[in-house]
Amino acid sequence: MSQPPTLEEIRRAPKVLLHDHLDGGLRPETIIDLARETGYDGLPTTDVEGLRAWFSEASNSGSLELYLQTFDHTVGVMQTRDSLVRVAAECAQDLADDGVVYAEVRYAPEQHTSTGLSLEEVIEAVQEGFRIGSEGRGIRVGTLLTAMRHQARSMEIAELAVRYRDVGVVGFDIAGAEAGYPPTRHLDAFEYLQRENAHFTIHAGEAFGLPSIWQAIQWCGADRLGHGVRIIDDITVQGDGTAKLGRLAAYVRDKRIPLEMCPTSNLQTGAATSIAEHPIGLLRSLNFRVTVNTDNRLMSATSLSGEFSKLTEAFGYGWDDMQWFTINAMKSAFLPFDERLALINGVIKPGFARLKWQA
Ligand SMILES: O=c1[nH]cnc2c1ncn2[C@H]1C[C@H](O)[C@@H](CO)O1
Ligand SMILES: [Zn+2]
To answer: What Gene3D superfamilies does this protein's entry cite (predicted)?
Structure first.
């Protein structure tokens, strides 16, 4: 049997990332530069390594609500056109350097208007950054516009997702604290998106359980689930090792609803206890449409290769598993079908074939 792939080898694999927050992936040195340039004086430290460590430690709180407080600092330095262009460009570069060939990156435009930018100016700045950072690097970046679930701007953001859909915005999402803010609070936005034949994912089943997943799918019509780990609450593993699926889990699997799983992030917010015990192992073995994601590379001190490497270690995954997760992700992307197929057949399969041949 061949050796399990190393982190360096995993970095060379053509990977697909569906769940990554723009404001959760800044380089610490960039945060410090931007704080200086824009006059943001709230940073806990201006030492690069100190700041890197601060983010990952502060995010290990075991609670989504506390985890989300760390975003005050990243959002705090992303309030000008130049800073948004820079952060988006560096995001595309960092993902390309990690071997990501297709990414969907999300952020909430409404959080970037505190010094006077309009929502349109925010969106156009981020698109410009993705264009600059992707050029010539073998990566394509699609944007998801997020609305914050505790706010009441989802309809406005959904309309912008539709307005900008031919210029790089591929879908919509809601994020933020889950408990107390059910997806149905934003039903009008989801119904509007469905009438417009637009795509959306919903953060659900991370800090709240099955009712949140059920609403996201059966009331709101989500195409994908952000995290969705708590679907495990509807699966019983019996004494003989076989799994019995409840009606909702069966529906999610039967309909091939993609789960955007983010293992390290789940440990930090308390949604899972360890990588080895993470529901992704069971869900993968039961052939749910599982994908592997980063969520917030800065807060989790990770990369997509890093997440795959941890899973390889915990579950003994090899190239075939990694290719399976990657093709799942590409099939689930909010790109037109022919473009997804072209990436699968022209980039992903040949890339993995090369790596397997070398192994
Ligand atoms: O894992 C998450 N769950 C819910 N909300 C999240 C998560 N990661 C980031 N966010 C929030 C904080 C960001 O400011 C916002 C938009 O990217 O989305
Ligand atoms: Zn997220």
So the answer is: Metal-dependent hydrolases (3.20.20.140)
pLDDT for 316-335, tens place per residue?
999 999 999 999 999 999 99
Q: What is the pTM of this model?
A: 0.98
Closest by alpha carbon to 12, among 352, 357, 359? 352
> Which sequence positions are flagged as catalytic?
206
Do 46 and 31 form a contact (C-beta atoms < 8 A)?
no
Is ipTM > 0.90 here?
yes
Residue-wise pLDDT for 331-352, tens only, equals 999 999 999 999 999 999 999 9
- For the chain, list the domains and their CATH numbers: 7-358 (3.20.20.140)
Dist. CA 98 → ligand 2 center (Å): 19
Residues framing ligand 1 (Cβ under 6 A): 21, 23-24, 64, 68, 71, 75, 106-108, 111, 146, 175-176, 203, 206, 265, 295-296
